[in-house]
Amino acid sequence: MLESRQRSEFLKGFLEEIEERAAKTGVYLVPFLEKMLLFMERDVEPDILIPPYAQNKIAVNAYSFDESQRVLDLYVANYNFEQNEQDLISISMTMLTDLANQAKRFITNAKTLAQTIDHSLQARDLAVLISENISDIDEVNIFVLTNMFYTANKPIELSIPGIETVNVQVWDIDRILQMILAEQGIQTIHIDFEHELGQTFEMMYVPNTQHEGTMNYFSCYVGFIPAELLAKAYDQWGSKLVERNVRSFLQAKGGTNKGILKTLKDPNERRMFVSYNNGISSVARAGDIEKINENINLFRIQGLTGWQIVNGGQTTASIHQAYKSGVDLTDVYVQAKLTILHVEANQEKDQQLLEDEMVSNISKYANTQNKINNSDLLANSRFMSDLEKFSRDTWIPTNDGRKAESKWYFERARGQYAVDLNRRKRGKEQNEFKKQYPSEKVITKVDLAKHFMSCEGFPHISSKGGEEAFKRFMEQNKQYWKYDKDENDELIPLSEVTIEVYQKLIARTIINFHVTDIVESMRLQGYRANVIYYTVAMLHHIYGKRIELLDVWNRQTLSDKWDEVIRIIADKALFFLRDSAGDRNVTQWAKQEACWVQFKDEYTKQLSNII
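-> structure tokens emitted (611 positions)
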């Protein structure tokens, strides 16, 4: 259990941010969902239902459907208004199970709901989608999101007739805080394999030639770890072995892999485990490593300091479950890669940052079996790094004669703001950081991409979600991260990222935020995100030449003369999306280019003379 003071302070800041955002609209669940979803890495970005569906012990707040993978995700949220930093209110397993069952009932009653829910509501689209595709759905993931603490931390199991795999994941405040703390630096626990676990393991050293004037930042070993040894280590140290890297942490927290368990439980398949499984990648700060024989490239790993599994969290958790279930792991081995980090820096904080970057890169490329998001792969590109630097150096202009005192905070990596904040001492240091980088000025790379694409006339791309928007955003701006060769065959950037490039990108975000505030104040029923993207796109399509992006940056807002224009366009956008979709799913229709083309064709002339 995390230290009470730490949990209280994190909860206080978390609730204050939700309160601040909810004050504008009077709605708490939407900002709560959006905040939680920032930490949840899913292949398909969920659509938030506005209003949420909650009737007759059936409830859903958001959903996504990956047709290619046959996976349906349902999200149900529970926000306790009595939660506070003094009481740290907990939620019971019984209550969480009831919430998960409310989402389950939406699936089992989908056919009836498709006929009874008002046709103007998003929830009806979901009911129709499920009823039409139920026979094709192989996996259902139910995510229960709560602002309380699930102290029991016991797994919740459900089954749905006709669905092969049903997973229930609880995302509480502790889980978010654990993820943030996990990014703050490698644990310094030392594991003595022989004395503490009763056995060691052997690995081969990978030659790494050091050139004059350069430093080797790592030593790498490859080999096999006895599955029983790995299971014992995880049994003793648990999530501490996987918490350094978010991806591996989520793999382990997400539960076990049924295919891995099936292989381990079958005596005939068990010995083939090393052939079937891609193994684990791990890092450590230091190691007690002994060469077995001078004439053989073989080393005995006797102990490791700060050992972390950065890829293979689910493999580790599955092996551990098999071990706890009494499966004989005597002849089972796991292929493994071990990287000993040799990072030196003037300050401990700098060392952690350098280590974080190395761990992140190792995790990304360690296992091609796992799907890696484009936004993760390109997070370390020159373009992203330059935007991050500009955001840390560029003050927000003021218009009242006072000196500038705050900046936008561009998140190149998920959860970076929270990690940066929590690395500072509580009290004065954290308060100064929040004053310089207000939470409402935090912008993620995928949100920046969605804002850019909607402004540039691609609302259908923004509607597809962060990953697709980021992919197209990077294609649109490839001159800022790709290279060419000069006459000396040296790599040179196609274009430099300038402060004006950064300011115009932020200006597009400011426009999106402005439109979002107006749309939310209109209390439109449904398809909020799609309406916002289509409104921004049409505003720019018709009036873009009259909106100067650098003026938006300097003012840090869009002139209120556009407010009524935005309201009219938003109202037309919602009507158009519903009406033109016909019997189609409105959200899916909004993701098609044909939808945007039709909207332009039908409404450009009508909306061109508002101002």
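The mean pLDDT is 85.
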